Amino acid sequence: MGTKAARWLKILHIVLVSLFFGGIMSSLVLNFNMKLAAYDQTLDMYQNVVAISDYIVRTGAVGTLLVGIIYGCFTNWGFFKHRWVTIKWILFIIQTIVGITIVDELMVENLALLEAEGSKALTNPVFIDNHTVRQYAVYFQISVTLFIFAISVLRPWKKKRHK
User: Fold this and answer.
1) Which of 1, 33, 103, 135 is the most exposed place for a label (fewest CB within 10 A)?
2) Neighbours of 128 (CB within 10 A)
3) Would you say the C-alpha torsion 66, 72, 75, 77 has a positive or negative sign?
4) pLDDT tens-digit profile of 21-71?
């Protein structure tokens, strides 16, 4: 891959990661501003975070994955050549699994409870537990993303060149 193509790939990577992280942060902010006692507000918030997840976070995550595969296959970074790149891949995979199996599942389940039970869902222990676990999973995702950012910039565990 040429230098110009690699630069465009890097721009695309930054845009997609921004979508991914921005979507996660948006859902966190919506959660902070929600009052679980207000049914309409809670329903609106869950509808909005599902839309953000479906259209923003997923687009960023899938796009980041594809760009990462292109980086790994067509540049000198590889997948396992540098420990810091390997760690980024492992963390991204863990983060994606948490996003799909915990955050998305609980979010969709809670939206279904709100639509089926109305305001009674707000006192349903399953709804409350789902909401709490989802919130902690989002904190985890944000922490992992920030750590990945740090790894990307600092490149720890980098092999030192001998002169």
Assistant:
1) 33
2) 14
3) positive
4) 999 999 999 988 888 889 999 999 999 999 999 999 999 999 999 999 998
**Cα atoms in the 13 Å half-sphere on the side-chain side of 66:** 9
The first and second tokens of residue 32, run together, are 């902070």
Answer left, alpha or beta for residue 144, where phi above 0 means left and psi between -120 and 50 means alpha: alpha
Residue with tokens 């507000």, as numbered in its chain: 41
Give the CA distances from residue 87 to residues 9, 54, 79, 99, in Å, rounded to whole numbers and listed in that order: 20, 26, 10, 18
Q: What is the pLDDT of residue 80?
A: 87
Burial code (b: 16+ CB inside 10 Å, e: under 16) for 131-156 equals beebbebbebbeebbeebeebeeeee
Tokens 């006192």 correspond to what residue? 123
Predicted TM-score (pTM) of the model is 0.86
Q: Which residue has the tokens 């902690």?
A: 136
Chain centroid offset of residue 37 CA: 27
